[in-house]
Amino acid sequence: MTTSVQATPASGQRFSAIRIRNAFLVSLANVLLLIGVVMAAIPFIYMISASFKPQNEIFTFPVQIIPKEPYLDNYTTLIGETLYLRWFFNTAIVAVGRTALSLFLCMLAGFAFAKYDFPFRRVLFVLVLASFTLPFEVVLIPLYTMMVRLGWLNTYWVLIIPFAASAFGIFLARQYALALPTELMEAARIDGSSELGIFFSIALPNLRPALAVMGIIFFQASWNDFLWPLIVLNDSTMYVINLALPTLRGPYNDQHGLVLGGAVIAVIPIIIVFFAMQRYFIEGIMAGALKG
Q: Are 167 and 110 in contact (CB under 8 A)?
């Protein structure tokens, strides 16, 4: 005995209505996302466009996105008559140094919290998380006093060492390291590997997505840092880009073209780092979503 189920006209209309509604919601979401992308891109497009304009054309109305004639004097003056190359070098040294040191120390600490059992492990980890809740302004004065006593003002050390191991980085590294199979570590110990050997040969290669996520976050935070360099640097030859660009503006001479040109060049390293680590970054985000 067989039974057949036939679709009624009412059910077909209801299915068509659901499809139309879903298509409308998807289209609306795409339109809203497109508007968001355009709104986010407009300042960058204007920044690039204005950096190729002379001073008297930057604020003309209506705005011309494509300059009539590319004006390169902003870039030649910026590189040839200011300390921009020195500022760029300082920023690169600080960003690369802080990122590399932070990755090493945070991964080492996070791996230890995740895979080793030692006295007061939970208490220490709670203290690390508690320090994460403190605003930077709370520790600003004690940290500055410490740097003065060490004699580190106007040096690279004052920009790198205080941020070498962040609580956020240790927490993030621990969460990724928890998913690392303990059996791999046991097999390495049987083969005679040391604990540092396990960390470098097993943990780090398997935690590359975490390294990418943390690397992008640390590099961007270091490259965009402004408040701390403003406090600990007073030598113009040691300025980083974010601190140096405002000095190109004065009460009687606002060189907007130079500032915008410097901002355009300053954005390039962040874009390069993101695209270079994009694949691992997406893998890290997906891994975190699956574990969550």
A: no
